[in-house]
Amino acid sequence: MTAFTAAVEVRLKHGVLDPEAETTARALERLGFELEDLRAADRYELDLEAEDADEARDRADEMAERLLANTTIHDYEVTVDQR
After folding, report:
1. Region 8-26: what's the mean pLDDT?
2. What is the pTM of this model?
3. Backbone angles phi, psi at 49, to 5 degrees
4. What's CA 3's distance to the chain center, in Å?
5. How confident is the model over 73-78, as a mean pLDDT?
6. In which order are the strands placed within the sheet that holds 74-82?
7. Which of 5, 8, 12, 48 has a beta carbon 3.0–4.6 Å from 16's, enabling a disulfide?
8. Helix H segments across the chain?
9. Is the C-alpha dihedral spanning 4, 57, 11, 28 positive or negative?
10. How far apart are CA 29 and CA 55, in angstroms?
11. CB 3 within 8 A of CB 53
12. pLDDT score, position 29
């Protein structure tokens, strides 16, 4: 078994109301920053043991599908790095 860190980044899909991002975007604009768009995201880092990176990715993907993301309103992305 090899040690991996899988990162799962979860964000609301485009078109879903994101009040946290809207508030942050307005605050940044008041500070003089120009933006086209801003979305808030949650990032989960999972340390796990797996035979290979594909198995680690599959396990992290299952965790995202079953708990970390509501796929009706969220998109998510999984990245895996060996520790």
Report:
1. 96
2. 0.88
3. -105, 135
4. 21
5. 98
6. 41-50, 2-12, 74-82
7. 12
8. 19-30, 53-63
9. positive
10. 43
11. no
12. 97
